[in-house]
Design goal:
Its EC number is 5.4.2.2. Its cofactor is Mg(2+). By secondary structure, the chain is α/β, with parallel strands linked by helices. An 8-stranded mixed β-sheet has the order 1-9-10-5-4-6-7-3, sandwiched between helices. It has a 6-stranded antiparallel β-sheet with strand order 21-24-25-26-20-27. The structure holds 1,6-di-O-phosphono-alpha-D-glucopyranose and magnesium ion. Residues 21-22, 124-125, 300, 304-305, 345, 368-370, 387, 389, 391, 526-528, 536 line the site of 1,6-di-O-phosphono-alpha-D-glucopyranose.
Length: 583
C-alpha cells in the first residue's frame, strides 16, 4: 500500500469566493490561480462539522468540463490530508448533478459505507474550456445543495483562511479505471473508488418509472424520439437509459459524447443555444429536411436542466412542471399513491398553482434556487417541483433532474397512447399541452435575458424599480401611458420567503409587479453567471377562456413586454435594444 503524509500550506484569503445561486462559478483562469480552488475546498471542510469530514465518505465528480480532472486530483489529496476515509468518483470524473444526489442518497459501499456529502464540479449551463467557466459546489447528506447557513460559513472562512492541508505525496489516481485504490496515511487507510457513472442513477430511474411502457412507446412506429446532451454529462446516461434500457435508436442521440469544452457550444437547453435540436424539431430558422421527431429534449452541461419539445412545438418549463404534476399519479408508478404537495420558484408561472388548486394539493412558492425545495421535500411536504429556468424534479433526489423530466414526459405520452401504439393517431406533445390549457387555462409566459450587462448598470436598474414601487399611482400612470388596455398594477414588492420548515427568511428575491388581472412582471439578477450581470425579466399573463389559449405567445404578450421594457427603462440603463436570449 502506498503511504502518504500531509503538509500545511500557507495561504491567504482571495477575494470573491462567495457562492452564488448554485455554488462558486468563475472563469477557469480564476480557478487556476495558485491556492484558489484549495482555499475554497479547505473553507468548505472547515464549515462542516468534524464528523462530516474525518472518517467520512465523500463523492467528487461533475460534468467533466475543462479543469475537472486536475481539480479532482487536488480535492482527493486535500480530502486525504483532512482525514476523510474514502472518496467516490464517477468514471472519468463524470457524474451528472442529479446522479451525485442519487449516489449520496442511495449508494452503499461493499463495506456498508454511505456518503455524507459531495463536491460537484460544474458551472452548469455555462460554456467550458480554458477560457470559459468552471464551478464547484458542496452538497449535503440529504443529497441537496448546502443551505445558505453553510454557504455563508464557507464564504466567511474564505475571508480568513491562512492555511490548507494537502497530501502532496499522494500519487494521482487513474480516474478512468474502475476499482478501489487504497493508501496508508497518518490516520489510517484512505480509499479512492472509481465506479461506473450510470449504475446507481439507472437503478433509481427504473424504480420510479414503468420502463416497459416507455419501451413500448419508443419502439412504436407511431413515435419518434430525439435527445440532445449538448456534449454535457447527460451523454453518459443517455445511451445506457434511452438506447440500452429503453430500445431507442442510437441515431436519436445528438451530441451525447461528453466533452471538456462542450464541443465549443453553450450547453444551455433553450431555444437559442440548443440549435441543432431546435432545427431537428422544426422550430429553427433552417429546419431539417427529413421527418420531424414527435418528441425532443435537451439537457445542460450537468444534466439537471431540461427542455422539452414536440414536433414544431416548445413546452415552456412552467407548463412542463404543471403538466407533469397533473398527470403524475396515473402515469408514473412512483406517484401512484398521490402527491404530497407541489412547489415552484417565484418567477415560474402560476400554471402549477392552478393544478394544485384543482387537485387540492399543498402548494409552495419559493425563491429561485433548488435548495429551497429541499427542506419541503425532507419534511414530506412536496413531491414535484419546477422552475422556469428549465428545472423540473421530484423528491426522488434533492436536485432537479433533466433525464427524470424526459422520462416523466415519455411516461405521460405512453399513458395517453396506451390504446393506439400499433396504429391510430398519436396523442402528441402539442395535444397534451393544448388539452391542459383547455382544462386549466393558459399562462402566456416569456423570459428576456440580458447577459453580461455592466454590473453597476444592472444594480441601478434594480434600484430604480424598487424606488418606483413606493408610488403605485405613479406606476399606473406610466403603465397606462404606454398601453391603456393593460390592466392596473395592484401591488408591487420585493419577494421575501419564510421557510415553513426552519423559519429562515430570505429577502430581496426578485422585484414583482402584480397586475389586477393576474399578470406579472418580475425582474431579478441571475445568481449563476461568472462575469458582469445578467438581468432576467419574466413576463406572464393568464388566459382562462379556452377559446383564447391558442395564440402565439410573443404576440399575446407584446403589450406587457412593451410596458416592462419602458417601465424599467431597460435600454436607458443597459444600452441594450434587445435581449440576448428570449425563451
Ligand atoms: O445553474 P443551475 O442549473 O445549477 O441552476 C441554478 O440556478 C437557477 C437560476 O439561475 P439564475 O440565478 O441564473 O436565474 C435556479 O433556478 C436553480 O434552482 C439553481 O439550481
Ligand atoms: Mg445545471
Amino acid at each position: 500500500m502506498v503511504m502518504f503524509s500531509f503538509t500545511r500550506k500557507q495561504s491567504a484569503p482571495i477575494d470573491g469566493q462567495k457562492p452564488g445561486t448554485s455554488g462558486l462559478r468563475k472563469k477557469v483562469k480564476v480557478f487556476m490561480q495558485p491556492h484558489y480552488l484549495q482555499n475554497f475546498v479547505q473553507s468548505t471542510f472547515n464549515a462542516l462539522t468534524t464528523d462530516k469530514v474525518r472518517g467520512a465518505t465523500l463523492v467528487v465528480s461533475g460534468d467533466g468540463r475543462y479543469y475537472s480532472k486536475d481539480a479532482i486530483q487536488i480535492i482527493i489529496k486535500m480530502a486525504a490530508a483532512n482525514g476523510v476515509r474514502r472518496i467516490w468518483v464517477g468514471q472519468n470524473g463524470l457524474l451528472s448533478t442529479p446522479a451525485v444526489s442519487a449516489v449520496i442518497r442511495e449508494r452503499v459501499g461493499v463495506d456498508g459505507s454511505k456518503a455524507s456529502g459531495a463536491f460537484i464540479l460544474t458551472a452548469s449551463h455555462n460554456p467550458g474550456g480554458p477560457h470559459e467557466d468552471f464551478g464547484i459546489k458542496y452538497n449535503m447528506e440529504n443529497g441537496g445543495p448546502a443551505p445558505e447557513g453553510i454557504t455563508d460559513k464557507i464564504y466567511e472562512n474564505t475571508k480568513t483562511i491562512n492555511e490548507y492541508l494537502i497530501a502532496e505525496d499522494l500519487p494521482d489516481v487513474d480516474i478512468a479505471a474502475i476499482g478501489v485504490t487504497s493508501f496508508g496515511g497518518p490516520e489510517g487507510q484512505f480509499d479512492v473508488e472509481i465506479f461506473y457513472s450510470a449504475s446507481d442513477y439507472v437503478k433509481l430511474m427504473k424504480s420510479i418509472f414503468d420502463f416497459e411502457s416507455i419501451r413500448k412507446l419508443l419502439s412504436s412506429p407511431n413515435f419518434t424520439f430525439c435527445y440532445d446532451a449538448l456534449h454535457g454529462v447527460g451523454g453518459a446516461y443517455a445511451k445506457p437509459i434511452f438506447v440500452e434500457e429503453l430500445g431507442a435508436q442510437e441515431s436519436s442521440l445528438l451530441n451525447c459524447t461528453p466533452k471538456e469544452d462542450f464541443g465549443g457550444g453553450h450547453p444551455d437547453p433553450n431555444l437559442t443555444y440548443a440549435k441543432e435540436l431546435v432545427a431537428r424539431m422544426g422550430l429553427g430558422k433552417s429546419d431539417s429536411q427529413g421527418e420531424l421527431p414527435e418528441f425532443g429534449a435537451a439537457a445542460d452541461g450537468d444534466a439537471d436542466r431540461n427542455m422539452v419539445l414536440g414536433k414544431r412545438f416548445f413546452v415552456t418549463p412552467s407548463d412542463s412542471v404543471a403538466i407533469i404534476a397533473a398527470n403524475a399519479v396515473e402515469s408514473i408508478p412512483y406517484f401512484s399513491s398521490g402527491l404530497k404537495g407541489v412547489a415552484r420558484s417565484m418567477p415560474t408561472s402560476a400554471a402549477l398553482d392552478v393544478v394544485a388548486k384543482h387537485l387540492k394539493l399543498k402548494f409552495f412558492e419559493v425563491p429561485t434556487g433548488w435548495k429551497f425545495f429541499g427542506n419541503l421535500m425532507d419534511a414530506g411536504l412536496c413531491s414535484i417541483c419546477g422552475e422556469e429556468s428549465f428545472g423540473t424534479g421530484s423528491d426522488h433526489i434533492r436536485e432537479k433532474d433533466g433525464i427524470w423530466a424526459v422520462l416523466a414526459w415519455l411516461s405521460i405520452i405512453a399513458y395517453k397512447n396506451k390504446e393506439n401504439l400499433s396504429g391510430g393517431k398519436l396523442v402528441t406533445v402539442e395535444d397534451i399541452v393544448r388539452n391542459h390549457w383547455a382544462t386549466y387555462g393558459r399562462h402566456y409566459y416569456t423570459r428576456y435575458d440580458y447577459e453580461n450587462v455592466d454590473a453597476g448598470a444592472a444594480k441601478e436598474l434594480m434600484a430604480y424599480l424598487v424606488k418606483l414601487q413606493s408610488s403605485l399611482p405613479e406606476v399606473n400612470k406610466i403603465v397606462k401611458g404606454i398601453h391603456s388596455d393593460v390592466s392596473n398594477v395592484a401591488s408591487a414588492d420585493e419577494f421575501e420567503y419564510k421557510d415553513p420548515v426552519d423559519g429562515s427568511i430570505s429577502k430581496h428575491q426578485g422585484i414583482r409587479y402584480l397586475f389586477e388581472d393576474g399578470s406579472r412582471l418580475v425582474f431579478r439578477l441571475s445568481g449563476t453567471g461568472s462575469e458582469g450581470a445578467t438581468i432576467r425579466l419574466y413576463i406572464e399573463q393568464y388566459e382562462k377562456d379556452s377559446s383564447k389559449t391558442g395564440r402565439d405567445s410573443q404576440e399575446a404578450l407584446a403589450p406587457l413586454v412593451d410596458v416592462a421594457l419602458k417601465l424599467s427603462k431597460m435600454q436607458e440603463f443597459t444600452g441594450r435594444s434587445a435581449p440576448t436570449v428570449i425563451t
